[in-house]
User: Fold this.
Amino acid sequence: MTHADFPAALLHRLRHARHIAVLTGAGISAESGIPTFRHAQTGLWSQYDPLELATPQAFQRNPRLVWDWYAWRRQLVAHAQPNAGHTALVAIQRHAPQFTLITQNVDGLHQQAGSTAVIELHGNIRRIKRADDGVIVTAWTETEGELVRCPQTGSLLRPDVVWFGEMLPPDALDAARVAAQTCDVFFSIGTSGLVEPAGSLPRLALHAGATLVVVNPEATFAPHNDVYLLQGAAGVLLPQLVAAVWGD
Assistant:
């Protein structure tokens, strides 16, 4: 898609938007080489179902196994770099009078690219917290085969992510819903829209009168006057859209 292919009405709405909100999912991170959650099992981990490792019950049964799986995933994230889609969102934030970035991803690549005040619905795999009270811990000692504990309290440590069966952070979810209800333009990028409650945010924005822009290789919404489908990779389409709207 070239600049000329973007609908003129969409470019106009973006140039005059007072508040742009964005929801990102696994698709934008996959463009940086991070496998999606359901495709992250390779090598040793191919024998495990990720749905059976990302639960409080799994952690209770075998905390060391769950810790090791997330440590392996943290290494994947540590070697990844933001892509052009991430940096295009930084540019949009710079141009928009008000901008809200909401992500379902836990890799921290938006912040690494330069985005600020990111609403993390599912936490961040780079952070570690105590399992009993949720306090973030920045230093710990690991001994092979032993449980990893907080050096101050002895509490078990776990990743600061939302597991299946756990509630999303209430403040983050509330802020995301407010953004969806108050924005002029809402982007849904690299997400199927099937995981709730994040999946309801684009519909919430539409019902509140916003223009919805879906950036995804596969269509997830039926197009109409207030829905624009940009089918393709975020790392390709978003920089082109930024250039078409703001000349960057």
